[in-house]
Amino acid sequence: MKPNTKYAKSGEVNIAYQVFGSGAIDLVYIPGWISNIDLMWACPELVNFLNELGKIARVILFDKRGTGLSDRVLGFPTLEERMDDIRAVMDAVNSEKAVLFGHSEGGSVSALFAATYPNRTISLIAFGIFAKRIYSPNYPWAPTNEERQKVYDMIEKSWGSGDMNLESLAPSKANDKVFMDWLANYFRSGASPSAALTLTKMNTQVDIIDILGSIKVPTLILQRTNDIDVKIEEGRFIAERIQGAKLVELEGNDHLFWAGNTQEVLEEMKSFILNVRPKLVYEKQLFTIIVGRLISLEANSASLRKHINACVKRFSGNAVQYNEETFTVTFNGPSKAVLCSIDLVEMIHSLNGKLNIGIHIRECYADHCISKETENLATSILKQSQPNQVLLTQTVKNLLIGVNLNFAIFNTIFDVVSGDSILLFTVSKKHKPNKLLNGVENDKIVQYDSFLEIVVQVINKNLSNEEFGVVSLCQDIGVSERQLQRKLKEITQKSPNQLISSIRLNHAKELLLSTSYTISEIAFKTGFSNPSYFSKCFKKEFSINPSDLKLKQ
């Protein structure tokens, strides 16, 4: 029997949800791409699966904003809004803690929720999950831009029909006309063609790789070995990066968990849910941290603090900690942190002052998340920024899906604690879109931004390899030298060799400023076999000898 549909308020958005089951433990099902909680009950296979879960848990279903019975929204729903929806539904049914069961793209937001709100998460179960939805050298199983474009075209031309190749989601049901008709109807009832396209483009931007290590709750990853939508390598990649995660590789090629060997899936889930022993309290969780440096204004002015505190409160930020020239704020999500930062810069500018802000995301102790370690990284970011500029790390940028912002690659810094090079971006509010921007179509700008990130990742991976050059770069990213030359010139106004050299020298600068390595050691670490040639290139790039910069420290 279909449960009653109710609505929870998530801000101003109505989120449709249902509750059923007799178990003592709560389980929230976070659906994938598109859902309709009423139409779920028209599929016998899915109904049987849900009823079996209801024997061991109180099951909570909901349609994410923009889909099914929930309110339609303009633009992309952000990951933060998606997390807010989960919390709103849990609050509406008085669920303090729950097992999160995320399917496909729903697994991505479930993973972020588990890292951000571990004390509201009993455990995490993910089926057919992916960490990224566009190809890159560190995640080669994802589709390319061209392959994703084919999906966009298919949605626009054939939404909800057999031409969408729905059989690829459930090959074992390909000849079951009743099931396939239901599936097409399910998708049509879940979203309009434009909404489906918007959600698909949002999925393309998903990148939760950097936060996987912050998930500490018990985790079960279920993946079918021949799933063509999400490759088995993706499940292995994710499980390796989540501490203590259990990966179960199931036979079959269905992407839908309620098709194929569903009994095996149920048994694995039941065993995990009933036998897991989570911590009562998690001391650490994921925080987004901003550090601002005030210029030309008294940081300790009572009226200025009042203005800053009001802005932080408006974006649901946590307590502000003030120092002599800087202040630090923490947020439970990146989009609120970034939007608050942009408003703070504008506010300080209106008061005839200047402000620069650095933003990063880290796993921290909940009771004292502002530590020396987190401040040091933010301060390193601040050193790079100019007045009235907001800089953020790539990890933060990757989680800003759906936020109406512009990003531009800025520089790299060296994190002494992790030993990694960190790519920084400038961020600004997006103006009303035009068909053409500087003669380049908007869609192409998005593609070029993705292309440039891939190029920078490959270069950073090979910083110490003196043999690495344009030929190697072309081989790693799969383009010709001519294509590489043309694209980089159009995006950065630099040749491939100039970009490689610039990234190496900026990394060298960070090593000079933050480590005790000798100049020769730094030269070798950044791909220069000749220290004197390194010094010559360094002076040309920064107008200062590396030895002189070292003396200033």
Automatic annotation (TrEMBL):
PROSITE patterns, per database record: HTH_ARAC_FAMILY_1, HTH_ARAC_FAMILY_2
HTH araC/xylS-type domain residues: 453-552
Pfam family for this entry, one: Hydrolase_4
MF (Gene Ontology): DNA-binding transcription factor activity; hydrolase activity; sequence-specific DNA binding
Keyword terms: DNA-binding, Hydrolase, Transcription, Transcription regulation
This protein's name: Alpha/beta fold hydrolase
